[in-house]
Design a protein that fits this description.
It is a single chain. With 211 residues, the protein is mostly helical. It has two domains: 1-56, Homeodomain-like (Arc Repressor Mutant, subunit A, Orthogonal Bundle), CATH 1.10.10.60; 58-205, Orthogonal Bundle (Tetracycline Repressor, domain 2), CATH 1.10.357.10. 67% of the residues lie in helices and 0% in strands. The protein is built from ten helices and no strands. The radius of gyration is 20 Å and the shape is globular. The protein starts with 11 loop residues before the first helix and ends in a 6-residue tail after the last helix.
């Protein structure tokens, strides 16, 4: 019996997962600029045409990685809020810490997710996943600012949403870029500022009992 071709080793869903895993590995090593469908196919052990067959284009495959990113971010935000208990300020701070934890744990996904030029934002699933992650932050800010569910955000609440997102997003980028290495008491690369300075920053910016 002749040897199986690489494609015959996979079921449909298994091949998709293998290509997504290969794409993440490439992104981690080379960044989005170094990503190619051909290299993803090579790492997955399939024909060069297989990724395009399943995902349509490089943007299609990268969109699947970004979709996973937003879904994972949503879980990290929920976990962070849960660590804050029932106190609205602590839940908001916990979400900020969860955001940076996500970026540390999944840097390839994080650095891709907001690349408008490389993703298919016409994909309804990607838009929904991004909106779900944003809704977690919005709900935490509503509780912190006392804005009831279903009501439009007032100026103070909208400002808090955008400021909180900007702070933790920028912190995450600086951390991943190694800008904090060597600062603090722990060894470089261990993220000591995530555990010490970031909570203090968030507590200082959004203390208990907003006015």
């Amino acid at each position: 019996m002749p040897d199986e071709t690489p494609r015959e080793r996979y079921h449909h869903g298994d091949l998709q997962r293998a290509l997504i895993a290969a794409a993440e590995a490439i992104l981690a090593e080379r960044g989005v600029e170094g990503f190619t469908l051909r290299e993803a196919a090579r790492r997955a052990g399939v024909s060069a045409a297989a990724p395009a067959h399943h995902f349509g284009s490089a943007a299609g495959l990268l969109t699947e990685v970004a979709l996973l990113g937003f879904e994972t971010l949503t879980r990290f935000l929920r976990d962070g809020a849960d660590e804050g208990g029932t106190d609205p300020a602590a839940r908001l701070h916990g979400q900020g810490i969860g955001y940076v934890r996500f970026a540390r744990a999944h840097p390839a996904r994080f650095l891709l997710m907001f690349r408008k030029d490389r993703l298919n934002w016409d994909d309804a699933r990607l838009r929904a996943a991004g909106q779900a992650a944003f809704a977690e932050l919005e709900d935490a800010v509503r509780a912190y600012r006392g804005v009831a569910a279903g009501r439009p955000l007032d100026r103070a609440a909208l400002t808090t949403v955008l400021a909180a997102w900007s702070v933790v997003h920028g912190f995450a980028h600086l951390a991943l870029d190694g800008k904090f290495d060597g600062l603090g008491e722990a060894a470089p690369g261990t993220g000591p500022l995530d555990d010490t300075i970031l909570p203090e920053m968030l507590a200082g910016l959004w203390p208990d009992g907003p006015g």
